[in-house]
Amino acid sequence: MVRTVAVLGSTGSIGTQTLDVIARHPEQFQVVALAAGRNVELLREQAQQFGVQRDYCIENATSPQLAALAGLGTVDVVVNAVVGFAGLSATMAAVSQGKRLGLANKESLIAGGPVVAKARAEGGGEIVPIDSEHSAIYQCLRSGSRSEVKSLILTASGGPFRGRTRRELGSVTVAQALAHPTWSMGPKITIDSSTLINKGLEVIEAHELFGVDFDHIQVVVHPQSIVHSMVEFIDGAVIAQLSHPDMRLPIGLALGAPRRLDEAFGAMDFRDALTLDFEPPDLSTFRGLTLAYSAGRAGGTAPAVLSAANEVAVAAFLGGGIAWTAIDEAVDAVLQLGTVPADTVEDVLAADAEARRRCQEHLERISR
Ligand code: MG
């Protein structure tokens, strides 16, 4: 049977790769809805290529429009590849309507953790991560039962600034921060990788996806980005997933799970020499990781505040307005202002808006 797919954020890095996977497997998947922000020309090309009806192809999509597409009765799988917090409405609609959600928009799950969990339990939706680390964990978890899991071990490439000191990083440029050593991704996530805040967000994402507490989620730096993450079981066995970096592997799994696609992306060839290194993260230089663990443990709106403040600070850095080291300092300053319980979507929206306002204020203050 053909699975019908809505691709939200279709013109971005994950969106275009999702369409590439679908185009290679027309016998398995059919695109029925598309949404994108600014790149209207590409969106129209995509609609034509995949034969998507005009009504289900939305330019400059608003939150209610994203939710409407994600909840369409004709959609089996929603791929949420919207950038940032704007993806929350689509995530909520997909899980509350009992859809399969291929989740590339980690911010919605991180900010909306408690409310997404409630909607997922009530609506019966299923989340399959489109994030290489979480896809790896999703695969490794097939090796044993949940009660046999000891810990999740997320790998991090370390980004372009691995091995540098905080003092050296005060003057790095936007171009240097965008030069990721192993993955080619959109600008927001690439900056998040350079600060390790991305890995911190992924720790919270792992907690929300797999229900493992923060004391049993570890981060290890693995510069080659071959081992995408690991699960340690109670008998000491560590199961890992290996492949060359290619997001089409997790995308294909999110579309086809529980079945794997019969096409290898990022296949390994062990006739080539291969060295795999692992080292602990440098927490004194990359403070975002520690901030994320404390926000995750605090719960409530703290992850929403962390993610929102980070979005504002990253945008300011990309615009040339602040130093790279000011990103996690801004997030820290906004988190200090305290957080509240997150019982409803409105709580999350309010926390998000307030954190953005306070982060903006903080950034204006430091740039004076
Ligand atoms: Mg990732």
Notes on the protein architecture:
The protein is α/β, with parallel strands linked by helices and 368 residues long. Strands 3-2-1-4-5-6 form a six-stranded parallel β-sheet, sandwiched between helices. It is 45% helix and 15% strand. The structure holds magnesium ion.
What are the main properties of this structure?
368 residues; alpha/beta; Rossmann fold; Rna Polymerase Sigma Factor, Chain: A; four-stranded mixed sheet; 15% strand; globular; binds magnesium ion
Q: What topology, given as strand order, has the largest sheet?
A: 3-2-1-4-5-6
- Overall pLDDT level: 95
What is the count of structural domains?
A: 3
Count the DSSP helices. 15
Strand residues, percent? 5-15%
Main beta-sheet annotation = 6 strands, parallel
Q: Roughly how many Å apart are the termini?
A: 60 Å
List the helices and strands and how they pair.
Blueprint: E1 3-8, H1 13-24, E2 29-36, H2 40-50, E3 57-59, H3 63-70, E4 77-80, H4 88-96, E5 100-103, H5 106-111, H6 113-123, E6 126-129, H7 132-140, E7 149-156, H8 174-178, H9 187-195, H10 197-210, E8 217-221, E9 227-233, E10 238-242, H11 248-256, H12 288-298, H13 302-318, H14 325-335, H15 345-367
Parallel strand pairs: 1-2, 1-4, 2-3, 4-5, 5-6, 7-8
Antiparallel strand pairs: 7-9, 9-10
Helix pairs in contact: 3-4, 4-6, 9-13, 10-12, 12-13, 13-14, 13-15, 14-15
